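Final report, results section. Input specification for complex C-07:
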Amino acid sequence: QKEVEQNSGPLSVPEGAIASLNCTYSDRVSQSFFWYRQYSGKSPELIMSIYSNGDKEDGRFTAQLNKASQYVSLLIRDSQPSDSATYLCAVNIFNTGGFKTIFGAGTRLFVKA
Amino acid sequence: ETGVTQTPRHLVMGMTNKKSLKCEQHLGHNAMYWYKQSAKKPLELMFVYNFKEQTENNSVPSRFSPECPNSSHLFLHLHTLQPEDSALYLCASSQESASGSSYEQFFGPGTRLTVL
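Structure output:
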C-alpha cells in the first residue's frame, strides 16, 4: 500500500459545481496534512493545511480530516475553469529516522465552462 | 525577493557539461529540499537538508550533488547527466520542529532542465 494515495483522475465537473478530491494515508500517527494545487508546467502552490479532525474552510475551499478513517479531502465550491489543475495531497508521516512529508501522485481536475 | 527563488528558470545542457542549480529561501525556514518532477509523474524527493545537514538521500545517482552552505541557500550540482534526467527540478523549504515534524513546504518556481 502506498503511503499517500489519490485517484489520478481526471475528475471532470461543470462550472459552479462542487469538486470533491480525496486522499488516504497509511500512517496512523500522522499529524499534518496539506493540499497543493499545481498548474501544468508550474510549481505546487499551498492551498490548505489541516492538523485536527473536522472541517477547515478558506473561501471556496474546505479541507476535511478524519484521522480514524485515515483520509483527508478537499472540497472546492462553485468550481471555476481556473480551478483546473492537479491537486496534490501531502502528509507528514513518521518513518524510521523521523517525520517526512510524503506527496501523493495528484488528482487532475477539469472544470468545464 | 520573497518566498523561494530558483535560478536559472530554464537550462539546456549537454551530457558532458557541468552546471549548478541555485535555490534561495527568504522565509527563515530551517529545512530545504530538492525534488524532481518528470513529465506526468509524481514528485520525487531527492535531497533534504535540515539545519544544514543532509538527512535524506533517496538513492539519487552521484551525478547529482547537493550543497547547502547555510540555511537559506541550496545548490544542486549537475555533471555528466543523461537525457532521462530532463525534468522540472523544484526546490522547497519548510520549518521543522524539534521533534522533526514539518510544517508546510513552500516551493520555488522550478528549473526546467533539458539534457541533450
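Residues 53 and 67 of chain A are 6 Å apart (CA to CA). The radius of gyration of chain A is 14 Å. This concludes the modelling results for the funded period.
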